Amino acid sequence: MAYKFTQEHVSELNYRKNQDVSNAARVYAAAFRGKPWLEKWSVADARKEIESWKQLIAEQNGKVFVVKNRVGRVIGVGVGHVNDPEELSGSLKAKLGDGKHYYFKDVAIERKFRKRGASSVLSAAREEHARRLGAKSIFSRTRFDNTARIKQFEKEGMNRFHEEDHETGGVVSKRIYFRKRLR
Ligand SMILES: CC(C)(COP(=O)(O)OP(=O)(O)OC[C@H]1O[C@@H](n2cnc3c(N)ncnc32)[C@H](O)[C@@H]1OP(=O)(O)O)[C@@H](O)C(=O)NCCC(=O)NCCS
After folding, report:
1. Residue 18 maps to a domain
2. Domain presence at residue 165
3. Per the domain annotation, does 2 fall within a domain?
């Protein structure tokens, strides 16, 4: 039987390891080109996106975590950070309230390794990071028709609290927002 992923498979992305960054970019581009997203990601664009997250690390606002399989290959990537208030709509900011809120930005798992807990262990790593940063809540969003992620939010004890349209990868869609209060 296929093994389940645990915290032992999670680490921070090492940007100095070209192979790991390349694999993370491949996983990211393939995940968001697939259903339900059907976005226009090349591996090069995904790499640029992943490189842009270095800024979050430099500012000590965020972290990029990866899941590796048994042979040490990156098969999943997830990024989390405390929110940049400038990027949020007024109504979303109002619902979140003042203070520090931690955003589960993106998560992508290679198709053949899905449904084995890889995304859940990335959520756990990000939640731990959010707590260390003293965030009041964690929040995230996904497409209205992303059943896999919505089920996962519910399983992780997150509640739906907002919706609005958003564009990524050249596609606009309705996004449903979920959150969990940490304190
Ligand atoms: C959504 C995604 C990240 C889930 O990754 P995963 O590693 O397969 O998820 P997990 O194995 O940790 O699943 C945890 C829980 O989520 C739910 N879930 C995950 N995939 C599901 C699916 N296809 N259908 C229904 N529920 C699902 C289940 O409740 C599951 O718990 P269970 O296995 O005990 O039933 C993955 O499908 C993916 O990469 N999708 C494409 C990119 C994407 O949509 N990212 C999210 C952007 S917001």
Report:
1. yes
2. yes
3. no
Residue 77 lies in a domain: yes
Total tally of structural domains belonging to the chain:
1
Q: Name the residue with the closest Cα to ligand 1, atom 33.
A: 115
CATH number at residue 125: 3.40.630.30
Distance CA 96, CA 27 (A): 31
130 CA → ligand 1 middle, Å:
21
If one counts every other C-beta atom within 10 angstroms of the C-beta of residue 170, the result is 9
Domain extent at residue 153 = 7-181
Pocket around ligand 1 at a 6 A CB cut-off? 31, 106-109, 114-120, 142, 146-149, 151-152, 155
Q: What is the mean pLDDT of each run of 10 residues along the chain (183 residues)?
A: 94 98 98 94 98 95 97 98 83 93 97 98 98 96 96 96 92 95 93
Q: Which atom of ligand 1 is nearest to the CA of 116?
A: 11
Q: Looking up tokens 């950070």, which residue turns up? A: 81
CB 125 within 8 A of CB 10: yes
> CA 94, 97, 99, 102 torsion: positive or negative?
negative
- Residue 85's pLDDT is 63
